[in-house]
């Protein structure tokens, strides 16, 4: 289903006056403080986050999966769902595909569909954490790190195939996340596993087109519970450096042990020009894949503070591939993604309000209290009218959630697709 611009405009009418009042009040206040409000609005409008093709259906856990019905069962339908998100939020202008779940049958048709909805093809993701039907070798004991050369070669070839598929669609990056590791002490030789992974990644890197990046994702545990081969940013950075200039570290918020200082990781990687991509989600315990900003919104803000600083001060770091990597068990996936997109924009807008010059001066004075006042002053600002204005300026909804509900989108999807569809790969 496609949402027409007129439907969005109509849904905005009721709250337009309220928005204008609160926006004028805030814009006036921020301008007096010296902020370039229209500059902030354009930055918010430009900030686009990729939606992964696997996040559009119910995720479930190993205990069960409860459908929301009307789930997309083909790549075409997944792109249509992202089109719905983009129409309402104006910030979901990209899709991140997962291969082999999303191999297009007709490349031109898919490209035309995405183009018509304003959606670009972001990083493509390979999958060596599952065995594919008919595959000769099994990834049960690892893929790129496996002790068997035949398994490693199969996994390398898969990644090279994913690059070819992405290239036909206009993608410019390959994300490699490995489930490789061990469940018990002694199961793996750490050094052999790491060296095999490095050698395999180099073979994949050789197949990377000149204008592509390779993004190496890390994760401390799960599905292996004793060790993972790429367990942290240090391991990822070593592997990326071992490949070359086009290889970078990718940070996924949920892929850290509790209380890790993620903002510091982000900061130093940007200083070294090695932060390539970012996966948003939130967590209470581990890789919970919850709605962005639902548990630790202040941590998200502090991370954005470093990202904004890096974007302004680290030309050595490339533009980042932004993606939401979440899973939905009890919320309608599209509503959950709308909430995540809003939380990302909110944290970004607040970070843009930090007076970097004043912060630097307070840091030079070792005025610790003032440093905190500056950060929290920005954090405590209700920036939602700025987000509304950014959406409004590009034809989006004042309140995407309300519009989604008043347009009764889930029920339209159910009548179109039925109750028994399952998003591929889940
Ligand atoms: Mn991820």
Word description of this protein:
- With about 425 residues, this protein is an alpha/beta fold.
- About 50% of the residues lie in helices and about 10% in strands.
- It contains 16 helices and eleven strands.
- The strands form three sheets. It has a six-stranded parallel sheet with strand order 4-5-7-9-10-11. Strands 1-2-3 form a three-stranded parallel sheet, with no helix packed on it. It has a two-stranded antiparallel sheet with strand order 6-8.
- Helix 2 (about 15-30) packs across helix 14, helix 3 (about 35-45) packs across helix 14 (about 385-395) and helix 4 (about 75-90) packs across helix 11.
- The longest helix is centred in the middle third of the chain and has 21 residues, at about 150-170.
- The chain starts with a helix and ends in a 9-residue tail after the last helix.
- The mean pLDDT is about 95.
- The site of manganese (II) ion has 5 residues, from loops.
By helix and strand content, what is the structural category?
Answer: alpha/beta
Order of helices and strands: HHHEHEHEEHEEHEEHEHEHEHHHHHH
Q: Count the E strands.
A: 11
Shape: globular
Name the helicity range.
40-55%
- Can you list the strand order of the major beta sheet? 4-5-7-9-10-11
Tell me, rounded to a whole number, the average pLDDT: 96
Radius of gyration over all CA atoms, rounded = 22 Å
Percent range for β-strand residues = 5-15%
- State the major sheet: 6 strands, parallel
* Low-confidence parts: none
Helix segment tally: 16
**N- and C-termini, Cα separation:** 22 Å
């Amino acid at each position: 289903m496609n949402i027409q611009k007129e439907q969005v405009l109509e849904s905005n009418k009721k709250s337009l006056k309220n928005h204008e009042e609160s926006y004028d009040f805030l814009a006036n206040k921020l301008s007096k403080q010296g902020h370039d409000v229209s500059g902030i609005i354009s930055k918010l409008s430009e900030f686009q986050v990729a939606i992964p093709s696997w996040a559009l259906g119910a995720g479930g856990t190993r205990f069960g999966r409860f459908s929301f019905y009307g789930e997309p069962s083909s790549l075409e339908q997944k792109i249509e769902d992202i089109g719905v998100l983009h129409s309402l939020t104006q910030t979901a202008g990209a899709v991140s595909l997962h291969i082999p779940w999303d191999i297009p049958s007709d490349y031109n048709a898919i490209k035309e569909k995405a183009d018509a909805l304003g959606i670009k093809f972001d990083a493509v993701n390979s999958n060596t954490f599952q065995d594919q039907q008919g595959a000769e070798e099994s990834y049960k004991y690892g893929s790129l790190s496996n002790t068997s050369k035949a398994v490693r070669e199969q996994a390398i070839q898969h990644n090279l195939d994913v690059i070819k598929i992405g290239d036909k669609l206009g993608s410019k990056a390959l994300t490699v996340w490995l489930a490789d590791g061990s469940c018990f002490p002694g199961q793996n030789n750490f050094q052999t596993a790491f060296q095999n992974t490095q050698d395999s990644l180099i073979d994949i890197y050789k197949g990377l087109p000149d204008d592509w990046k390779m993004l190496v994702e890390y994760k401390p545990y799960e599905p292996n519970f004793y060790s993972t081969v790429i367990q942290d940013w240090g391991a990822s950075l070593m592997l990326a450096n071992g490949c070359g200039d086009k290889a970078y570290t990718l940070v996924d918020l949920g892929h850290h042990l509790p209380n890790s200082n993620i903002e510091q990781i982000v900061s130093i990687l940007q200083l070294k020009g090695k932060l390539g991509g970012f996966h948003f989600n939130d967590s209470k315990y581990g890789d919970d894949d919850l709605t962005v900003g639902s548990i630790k919104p202040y941590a998200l803000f502090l991370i954005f503070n470093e990202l904004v600083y890096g974007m302004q001060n680290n030309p050595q770091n490339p533009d980042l591939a932004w993606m939401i990597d979440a899973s939905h068990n009890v919320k309608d996936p599209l509503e959950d993604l709308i909430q995540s997109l809003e939380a990302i924009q909110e944290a970004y807008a607040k970070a843009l309000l930090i007076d970097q010059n004043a912060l630097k001066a307070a840091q030079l004075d070792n005025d610790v209290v003032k440093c905190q006042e500056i950060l929290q002053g920005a954090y405590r600002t209700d920036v939602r009218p700025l987000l509304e204005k950014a959406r409004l300026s590009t034809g989006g909804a004042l309140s995407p959630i309300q519009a989604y509900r008043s347009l009764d989108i889930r029920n339209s999807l159910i009548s179109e697709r039925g109750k028994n569809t399952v998003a591929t790969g889940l």
